[in-house]
UniProtKB/TrEMBL annotation:
A GO molecular function held by the record: nucleotidyltransferase activity
Keyword RNA-binding annotated: no
Originating species: Sulfitobacter pacificus
Protein name (record): Glutamate-ammonia-ligase adenylyltransferase
Keyword Nucleotidyltransferase among UniProt keywords: yes
Domain PII-uridylyltransferase/Glutamine-synthetase adenylyltransferase as annotated: residue spans: 306-439, 800-920
Glutamate-ammonia ligase adenylyltransferase repeated domain boundaries: 38-276, 529-768
Keywords: ATP-binding, Magnesium, Multifunctional enzyme, Nucleotide-binding, Nucleotidyltransferase, Transferase
Length: 931
């Protein structure tokens, strides 16, 4: 053991008590010299330590050889105490623990974490011993229905939750302990509930008395049970169900913050862990909870006012815990950031202050230098706090009022008084400036609008009649935002147009507190919001109903590289694994997918990507959702009807999904192909014939994708491309599908097959389906027959589907559907798949249907149509009405097609589509039509 504080004796001549030092030395005559110096100096500074030494010197003489081992023996001994000896035994253990931790702390042998960890471990052991001692008489007297002495191992379903510093394993030297006591009411019959509760209440009071009563042997820990729900009217031990109902309906932000550190420490630890898990939605909000900042700020101000600690930093008497720049400031800063983002990121749900600061920095929620600075200040503050409490075992956080007191503290900190004072003032000021800037500085700085633009006051005046302003708090936050928002709107190309677009967004917004709080804490988002609502009515409507998608901009990888289908599938699978139920998984998928969908749209809207890239990303997202959700649906279905018969089923993507190119409003064309092998029925609680099994499984998947749950729908599903169309079964066996495709399928079905690809399901079965599709396409398809069929189909489409106008990118001669149909015919004639339309055009070229010039014409037309389709669907899910587009929307549409004006776009589209239609008409007319 290396302990060195010899300088302590010479540093404190005015408070050094020679008699106390001499008494201390006399108690450890055989200790090593450095230990004797430390003991003498510590006793001279702290009368309490001398009182401990007088009682535990013999133990100390043996323990100094290995302090860590000695302290662990004290902790282990507490858990093994006989019930009759718990009171005195725990007090004796606490004396030994307090003496050794103080010496190891003062001598620099232990870090802050070792000191607080030892104190916390002993508190855990003491709570467990005191709880068992309190429960034993209740069980012995038959007061706890159905319980025997064997049930003491898990306290009969009762658990003690450690809160605050004890929960975080950060107990200070003279800390009280905050506990919440609960019991699992499900372990008792309904008629026995009241008797059980009474017994647990008595045991809790006995436990608290054992720990906190002051006897001739001292006390163990001062115990506070007031953090439980509504402590003025509730018993000291509550049923878990009652506590859960309270938090769900009445829980406040400070209670959410308190539960960040909550930890089962004694009794039924498993029941305690389950209870905390049930509170996860209460503690950790799914969205980024920036409203918690104001709540925390209000709590800080209330504490300051209540304690009279709101003044400037003056060292004498300054409260190191609650005063400006104190410990609580750092804890509030850390916990509030956790509350904001912990619902989305489980790694931010830790209990320890320093560890969480490090993680917050790693996750880019705070700058690394801020985390390092606050961590350093936190450790220094806690060290000062411990020194103050060692003097007389007082639960104090106040710096000394006298010069002698500062001299004592300086000596215990191994510093000169001026150096200590300078260090304290620097640290307190730095903490205050950092944290105050976070809490009070998040209010957006209003930009003066001056006379730059005068908005229509009738529009502004009606805002407070909208649902988002019904909450007084929401209206208050918006008032702080309003000057800045108006200034940003005034800088738009057409301010009045931008205002009306923003007005429409506010009108549809169902609630405002969370979004307004987010904008208040992140003013830079206002530009993005105004840009979105001014440009894209469709995206603005989506955003008003799903404002939480802004979370992805702040807390996700919004501007990082695209992860691809595999990365997305892995990320979603991680999200699904964390959800507690099937319904939660479906809602979680919707929430997750919506954020990524929003990301794709914003990137396209702001020119960070183009239509080609956006189409691929929309498809990646859809295929990732299908790939991750299909196993979840099959597993849930299997709980009722048994595992999938045979080799299971795959989802075969058709159309644009199979081709890997979607737009913002695309539905998904799917087929379900299964292979039951020779298994006729499933093996489950309710077995089903294999055909019925897969039909119902398909319906379950459709429901999972399309049901309008609390988070809306995922995608619309279209299964009309299955064999026999709407008349056929929704799921088809592999053998039937193969037979149908080879002997009965129409040409249009083979055309569709050129873009098919497996998107989800067992890999082996998927490979067989892909191989079978390739074999079907490789069968001889006479060119004359295909050309004739496609020409006939083209005529029927033209007769049945009217062109919506010059801005219809899909329907009409030379447009998307027309070029896609022709490209598929080229692929079918070539006898191979062509997921990309450009590959189908190349196949048509190779087969002589078109020449090089014709292929180039089709490529240019298809690219232009796709750009128009992708950009147009982002602006509106309906037929594009350019007359209704604002200036920002029109500029985006023109920019997406590489033009300056919409007139130029229209002329370009007409020219390219007319040329493409002529190429297709000539090709389908026969060889003589080829240029």
């Amino acid at each position: 053991m290396t302990l060195s504080l010899a300088s302590l004796i010479t540093r404190i001549p005015r408070i050094f008590d020679q008699d106390r030092a001499r008494d201390a030395l006399a108690l450890v005559p055989d200790a090593p010299a450095e230990v004797r110096d430390l003991v003498a100096g510590a006793a001279a500074c702290a009368p309490y330590l001398l009182s401990l030494l007088e009682k535990e010197s013999a133990w100390l003489g043996q323990a100094v050889e290995d302090p860590a081992k000695a302290v662990q023996a004290v902790i282990d001994g507490a858990a093994a105490l006989p019930y009759s000896e718990v009171g005195d035994g725990l007090r004796r253990g606490k004396r030994r623990l307090a003496l050794m931790t103080a010496l190891c702390d003062l001598g620099g042998a232990w870090s802050l974490e070792q000191v607080t960890g030892a104190l916390t471990d002993y508190a855990d052991a003491a709570c467990g011993a005191a709880l068992r001692a309190g429960l034993a008489p209740q069980i012995a007297r038959g007061k706890l229905p159905g319980m025997s002495e064997d049930d003491l191992a898990d306290a009969g379903g009762m658990v003690v939750l450690a809160m605050g510093k004890m929960g975080a394993r950060e107990l200070n030297y003279s800390s009280d302990i905050d506990l919440i006591c609960l019991f699992d009411e499900t372990r008792f019959e309904v008629d026995d509930f009241h008797a059980a509760r009474t017994a647990f209440v008595r045991a809790t009071r006995a436990m608290s008395g054992t720990l906190s009563d002051l006897t001739g042997a001292g006390y163990v820990f001062r115990t506070d049970l007031r953090l439980r729900p509504d402590p003025a009217v509730t018993p000291v031990c509550m049923a878990m169900e009652a506590a859960e109902r309270y938090y769900e309906s009445l829980g406040r932000t400070w209670e959410r913050a308190a539960y960040i550190k909550a930890r089962p420490c004694a009794g039924d630890l498993d029941a305690g862990a389950r209870f905390i898990k049930t509170l996860r939605p209460f503690i950790w909000r799914r969205h980024l909870d920036f409203a918690a900042i104001q709540d925390a700020h209000d709590m800080r101000l209330a504490i300051r006012e209540h304690k009279g600690l709101g003044g400037p930093i003056t060292l004498p008497g300054h409260n190191m815990k609650l005063g400006r720049g104190g410990i609580r400031e750092i804890e509030f800063f850390t916990q509030t950031r956790q509350l904001i983002a912990g619902g989305r990121d489980p790694e931010l749900r830790g209990r320890g202050t320093c560890a969480n600061l490090e993680i917050l920095a790693q996750k880019n929620w705070i700058p690394t230098e801020v985390a390092q600075s606050l961590t350093d200040h936190y450790r220094a503050h806690r060290t000062v706090e411990h020194r103050l409490q060692m003097v007389r075992d007082a639960q104090t956080h106040d710096l000394p009022q006298s010069k002698e007191g500062f001299a004592r503290l300086a000596a215990m900190m191994d510093l000169e008084v001026p150096d200590l004072e300078a260090d304290l003032h620097r640290r307190l000021s730095d903490v205050h400036e950092t944290t105050e800037g976070f809490f009070a500085g998040t209010q957006s700085k209003a930009k003066a609008t001056g006379e730059a633009h005068r908005f229509d006051m009738q529009v502004l005046d009606r805002w407070h009649s909208y649902p988002a302003f019904r909450s007084e708090r929401g209206a208050e936050i918006f008032e702080r935002l309003k000057p800045d928002l108006l200034a940003r709107l005034a800088h738009a190309a057409k301010p009045d147009e931008a205002l009306l677009a923003f007005d429409g967004f506010l009108e549809r917004l169902p609630a405002g507190v969370q979004l307004f709080s987010l904008l208040n804490a992140n003013p830079q988002l206002a530009d993005l919001l105004i840009d979105v609502v001014s440009t894209s009515p469709a995206l603005a409507k989506h955003l008003s109903r799903n404002a939480a998608v802004f979370d992805a901009v702040i807390g996700g990888d919004f501007f990082s590289d695209w992860p691809g289908e595999a990365g997305l599938r892995e990320a979603l699978s991680t999200v699904l694994a964390q959800e507690p139920s099937y319904e939660a998984q479906l809602d979680g998928t919707r929430r997750w997918a919506r954020e990524w969908h929003f990301r794709i749209g914003v990137h396209l809207l702001r020119g960070l990507t183009n239509a080609e890239t956006a189409g691929l990303q929309y498809a990646d997202l859809a295929r990732a959702v299908l790939g991750a959700l299909w196993p979840v649906v099959t597993d849930e279905f299997a709980t009722r009807y048994g595992p999938s018969p045979g080799r299971g089923a795959v989802l075969l993507g058709m159309g644009s999904l199979g081709a890997g190119r979607l737009n913002a409003t695309s539905d998904l064309d799917l087929l379900v192909i299964y292979d039951p092998l020779d298994q006729d029925v499933s093996e489950g609680k309710r077995s089903l014939p294999s055909r019925t099994y897969y039909a119902r499984l398909t319906q379950a998947m459709i429901t999972a994708m399309t049901a309008p749950m609390s988070q809306g729908k995922l995608y619309e599903i279209d299964m009309r491309l299955r064999p026999s169309g709407n008349q056929g079964p929704v799921a088809t066996s592999l053998a039937s599908f193969e037979s149908y495709q080879k002997t009965q399928a129409w040409v249009w079905e083979h055309l569709a097959l050129t873009r098919a690809s497996v998107v989800a399901g067992p890999e082996a079965l998927g490979a067989d389906v892909d191989l079978m599709c390739a074999q079907v396409l490789a069968l001889s398809s006479p060119q004359e027959k295909v050309v004739a069929e496609v020409a006939d189909m083209r005529d029927r489409i033209a007769a049945s589907k009217a062109v919506a106008g010059p801005w219809d990118a899909k329907i009409g001669p030379g447009r998307l559907q027309d070029i896609e149909l022709f490209a598929q015919s080229g692929a079918l004639i070539a006898g191979r798949a062509a997921h990309r339309i450009l590959d189908g055009i190349e196949a048509a070229l190779a087969k002589g249907l078109i020449d090089d010039a014709g292929a180039q014409t089709l490529r240019r037309a298809y690219d232009a149509c796709w750009q128009l389709q992708c950009a147009g669907k982002l602006l509106s899910p309906d037929a594009l009405d350019t007359g209704a587009l604002g200036q920002a929307g029109a500029a985006f549409l023109a920019r997406a097609l590489g033009c300056d004006t919409l007139d130029e776009v229209e002329a370009q589209m007409e020219q390219k589509c007319t040329a493409a239609a002529a190429v297709i008409t000539a090709a389908l007319a026969g060889p003589e039509g080829v240029a």
